[in-house]
Amino acid sequence: MKKIFVFLILVFVLALGVILLLGKKDDPTLQALDSYEFRELINLDSNSNVFYVLEGNYDGIKQRAYLDIFHNENLEDSSDSLIAKITLWKQNHSFEIALDDKILGFALDNKGMLIISGINNGVEFKFYQDSNAALNQMRIIKSEIYTKTQIEDRFGKREVFYRGKISKPIIVNSDLNHIHLLNQSISDSNDIYQLKNNLEILLKNNMNEYIQNYGLQSNVEFISQDSIGYIDDNILEIDTVSYRYTGGAHGNSIKTMQLYDINSGAKIPSGIEDVFDVTNENKDKFLMLLSSYLESKRDQLFDESLPLTVMPNSFFLSQNGVIFMWNAYEIAPYSSGNVYVVVEFDKIKELIKDDWRYKSLFYGA
After folding, report:
1. What percent of the chain has pLDDT over 70?
2. How far apart are CA 241 and CA 220, in angstroms?
3. Which three-class secondary structure state does DSSP give residue 56?
4. How confident is the model over 303-354, as pLDDT tens digits?
């Protein structure tokens, strides 16, 4: 009986070994790709950027990361040049590498999931598209309109232009149950092709309306650019930077965000008053807390800005806490730009509204 038992144990161990051996899949060979080759690898056209949620190792530390691959706007003569920006969760750090330097390795596994590896300042890293994430890839679709004309005024004859640019994200290749609803919420589109068409129509209508109402007497620019600010298994944050220039010394930009429920596809009310209890005495407590974080930036602010009396314009989520922001001129001069402070979750959690259904985020649950 004992021999039979030992024999069965051996058979089980051997069978388990065979299963593990057969189930083990080596990574495909990673290749250094330039911008064109990477676009070919994932079928990314020249008017699109891409965002991934990754898991892997950086300097031997296992962690999650974000990967943004976007057009290098600084190289006007190289429309296909791409930059990879990797944001590390545990190090609270990001870095950028140009794909055309060909120091990043890329491959797709047998399920079409991205693998990336490389070296940053002597530190090796390797990441995989996170197959366990509820949402691990999005495309950012870009569109632009441009026209110019000759005018004559007190400055003489000169050329002026109108430029409109917009980018919006859309989910692709996802098993989410409510992907259709979520795409409708974030981009008012069902797929990439519909989004491209919608953006072109929007830009054209906006340009025609502006020129019809105001004419074109100076250079004019309207830019709206969306990006993924934060994502977990419940919440998606889309950040929007809007820039407007209609003449004068400089344009003005503002940054806002909108939260979405990944599981239902619905918009989440995203104002400060929607999430934080800042009524009555809690408002004073809230402003005092933020004032303490702004002390180190006092020399960048207006003299009368501290202690704070002005509420932040918006807030943004991060892996390390809540980022509160004031736009230019609200508490600081234009030269200081937007003002940001990061408040750790455990320092702000007491001010979260009791009925905010996502408050577990602030408690590390």
Report:
1. 91
2. 17
3. strand
4. 999 999 999 999 999 988 999 999 989 999 989 999 999 999 999 999 999 9
Domains of the chain: 31-129 (2.30.29), 139-268 (3.30.565.40), 272-363 (3.90.640.20)
Q: What gap in Å lies between CA 169 and CA 354, rounded to an integer?
A: 31
Contact in structure between 237 and 314 (CB atoms under 8 Å): no
How far is it, in rounded angstroms, from Cα 130 to Cα 62? 12
Output b/e per residue, 189-223; b: 16+ Cβ within 10 A: beebeebbebbeebbeebbeebeeeeebebbbebb
Return the amino acid letter for 237. E
Beta bridge partners of 343: 322
pLDDT tens digits, one per residue of 158-216: 999 999 999 999 998 888 888 999 999 999 999 999 999 999 999 999 999 999 999 99
Q: What is the CA radius of gyration of the chain?
A: 25
pTM of the model: 0.88
| CA-to-CA dists, residue 171 to 13, 182, 190, 262, angstroms | 44, 8, 9, 11
Q: CA-to-CA distance for 259 and 33, rounded, in angstroms?
A: 34
Residue labelled with tokens 């989440």? 268
Cβ 188 vs Cβ 265: under 8 Å: no
* SS3 category, 286: helix
The two three-digit tokens of residue 154, written as one number = 């007190």
Closest CA to 222 of 246, 240, 204: 246
Question: How many Cα atoms occupy the beta-carbon half-sphere of 292 within 13 Å?
Answer: 9
Secondary structure E strands in 232-307: 235-245, 252-261, 267-268
Please confirm whether the linkage preceding 307 is cis (ω < 30° from 0). yes
Tokens 């999430």, residue located: 275
Determine contact, residues 181/264, Cβ cutoff 8 Å. yes
CA distance 185 to 83: 28
Q: State the Cα–Cα distance between residues 42 and 104, nearest whole angstrom.
A: 15
Sign of the CA dihedral running 228, 64, 53, 86:
positive
